[in-house]
Write a structure and sequence with these properties.
The chain is of the alpha+beta class. It is built from 15 helices and 17 strands.
Length: 500
């Protein structure tokens, strides 16, 4: 099998080929390393890549295990690069911050432990913005990651390196994390799938706090829904050290009602979509720009509506809603409180390092840190109460609908030199992340949300994603819905980015 043929395989096909001994783990590693060495210097998606000889030695060990009839699991011998926010033994965990460039991990994070247990070989890290702040992958340590479709524009973030690796076939699967769209926005901008799991579905450990810091979560990215579900099945699961993690496995669920209803039970991969992939009777609320609350660049709503029309043509019921039925300005200000509270400690820890200076940290991170210094407990509790009201309102809507639909981003990928959009459709953005407001509702409510490829801009050059928000702990049902959509858009998904 040629190198290009190997890197073209999706994760399921690659795993089958490895286990059938149609291709060796060494051949797989050589194929991916060759592609990485050829393309990554221009993409800058993978950082701190391990030496080739060390990786090939691990691949030979995996081949020896297969020769003895032993497999570690679905990811046996599969190359994996870990987002630079997660610990992987032997690699620095930098968060894209130069002050942390020598902070080499001594233990694997829980997600990495689970992926390694399933057989993956960690080859390096994927690039991210400094401290994961802002959906544009640039930092002073490694530089900027180019969009997979056009190197002149942003890859999104904060899991930008991961999304570009997928789109350009530098990896068969990717992991990431999502605080304010960090698995969804880069997926949409690079024409792949990204899932923010339900709060607690993919627990994080080690962690300084296991009670309050619940806005961010790790999760999967993939080029198709089946691979996405398989990686989630590996990452997910209860861990007693994280008491708010989800203990239950996915339940059988039904979509629609009456004669068109169908149920889904779990199997070897708990989150894997099941046949049939029909969308008939699924109810989806199209929130659009939330009645004018969100500033959207021209063409984004239209591309998302075209994707929804395909779903409607297949039997889904798509209903325009235009409102969440809650004061979104109050939600935004509550969000600012929670975000500052959780971001500030990480920035403070970097500032406390020997020789650290404020000038070594991006202004947006300092702004979050400084704003947090005057926060009071009563402000946090008021924000928590507002978050509770948002959850209750979205839960009420999700009793009527199977999913809530929004654009995954409010702007098309912008010039790579620009740090963040100052204006959208003539409206000034009052913070560095106001242009990402569309992603916060799923995060703040702790709900699962998936980005599915929706289409391209008028020039046919830049991708955009559609965001589908599911019911509480409804990750499996959301993946089933996404798989039904995926089955309709084969020609769209077959499009590949040009090599840079």
């Amino acid at each position: 099998m040629s190198s290009d043929a190997i890197t073209d395989l999706d994760a399921h096909a690659l795993s089958r080929a490895i286990h059938a001994r149609e291709v060796s783990c060494v051949e797989v590693m050589r194929a991916y390393l060759a592609r990485i060495h050829r393309l990554n210097p221009r993409l800058n998606a993978i950082v701190n890549l391990a030496p080739d000889d060390a990786l090939l030695a691990q691949a030979r060990e995996r081949d020896d295990e297969l020769a003895r009839g032993a497999s570690r699991g679905f990811l046996h011998g599969v190359p994996q690069a870990i987002k630079d926010a997660a610990n992987a033994v032997g690699f620095p965990t930098t968060f894209g911050c130069a002050l942390l460039k020598d902070q080499v991990a001594r233990v694997d994070g829980l997600m990495v432990q689970r992926m390694k247990a399933a057989g993956c070989i960690v080859i390096g890290k994927t690039n991210m913005p400094e401290f994961g702040l802002g959906s544009h992958t640039y930092n002073n340590l490694f530089g900027t990651t180019a969009n997979a479709w056009d190197p002149a524009v942003s890859a999104g973030g904060s899991s930008g390196g991961a999304a570009v690796c997928l789109a350009q076939r530098l990896l068969p699967l990717a992991d990431g994390s999502d605080f304010m769209g960090s698995l969804r926005n880069p997926a949409g901008w690079n024409h792949v799938f990204g899932l923010r799991p339900s709060q607690g579905r993919v627990p994080s450990w080690p962690a300084a706090d296991v009670w309050v810091a619940q806005l961010g979560t790790e999760g999967p990215m993939a080029r198709n829904v089946r691979d996405l579900a398989a990686l989630l099945s590996i990452q997910a699961g209860y861990d007693a050290r994280t008491p708010l993690s989800i203990a239950q496995r996915p339940q059988a669920f039904s979509v629609a009602s009456g004669p068109q209803a169908f149920s889904v039970a779990h199997g070897p991969h708990d989150f894997a979509p099941r046949e049939p992939l029909s969308l008939r009777g699924a109810r989806i609320a199209w929130l659009g720009d939330l009645g004018g609350h969100l500033a959207l660049e021209a063409g984004i709503a239209e591309v998302c509506e075209q994707a929804l029309q395909r779903m409607a043509d297949a039997g889904a019921v798509v209903e325009p809603l235009n409102s969440l039925g809650i004061d979104l300005d109050r939600v935004w200000h509550a969000w600012l409180v929670g975000r500052r509270l959780l971001t500030a400690p990480r920035v403070a820890a970097a500032l406390a390092l020997a020789g650290a200076a404020r000038e070594q940290i991006k202004p947006e991170a300092l702004w979050e840190h400084d704003q947090a210094q005057s926060l009071q407990g009563t402000e946090f509790m008021r924000a928590a109460e507002m978050r509770t009201r948002l959850y209750a309102q979205m839960l009420a809507l999700l009793q009527r609908f199977d999913a809530l639909a929004l654009p995954v981003a409010q702007v098309w990928p912008f010039a790579i030199e620009q740090h963040w959009p100052r204006q959208i459709a003539g409206r000034t953005m009052d913070t560095y992340h106001r242009w990402m407001e569309v992603t916060l509702y799923a995060t703040f409510a702790g709900l699962p949300a998936i980005s599915v490829p929706a289409g391209f801009d008028a020039a046919g050059r830049l991708p955009m994603g559609l965001q589908l928000i599911g019911r509480p702990q409804g990750d499996a049902a959301l993946l089933q819905l996404a798989a039904g959509y995926e089955a309709l858009v084969g020609e769209l998904l077959a499009r590949r980015p040009p090599e840079p």
